[in-house]
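Preliminary data (for renewal application), 2-phosphoglycolic acid complex.
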Amino acid sequence: MMRQSLVIANWKLNGNLKLVDDMVSALASARCSADVVICPPAPYLAALETATQRLNIEVGGQNCSVYSNGAYTGEIAAEMLAEVGCKYVLLGHSERRALFAEDDTLIAKKVQLAQQAGLTAVLCVGETLQQREAGKTLDVVKAQLSAVLNDVDFNRLVVAYEPVWAIGTGETATPEQAQEVHAAIRQYVATFNTDAASKLALLYGGSVKPENAEILFAQDDIDGGLIGGASLNTDQFLAICSAVKG
Ligand code: PGA
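Predicted structure:
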């Protein structure tokens, strides 16, 4: 079964118009068999969308509101992301869960709104170091998934496994650790929908770098990556994109 190979750049609260230009020029001359998505801070979405129109690169939001419209100062609706050309939106990132108190119920609602707006929701799941050391990794990840999977459009879903202890720390899950969780995620998704599980793009995130990308992406159940720090550097990001199998 051929699954989508995908590399998603998550710029977080970084970047500027110069990075938009530099990244688009670099990607324009690159050869990459994976689909590439860039999620910049929201003010740069329109510029990025315009600059990538003739390229095989999609644009995504880093978050969306749990509301569709109204008096919610500072919020951005899923429909608005779609209107400016986004095809994807990251949801449930561990930084949103930890720093902005997003819980599974809220995340599930956002996934629904995003999918109704026509976006593909990139649902991020992952355990903390404490949870891993307590042997709870799979329980945590399954709970995060089950909150969403009961009422989801599997055709507009990507799951990113991002162990919290590996995000921005320079510490990466070993290929074996990552593959073990990815295989468990796919099996768990199969209990909701077998066909969807075999087609689901499952990404690994957490300190992916050019040096470890190829071995991570070579694992059976790893279909690509969600890249933070290394997606801010054109050389590093291109090297990661070209490490995807397929
Ligand atoms: P990192 O971030 O690559 O800097 O670890 C990944 C992420 O948070 O999505």
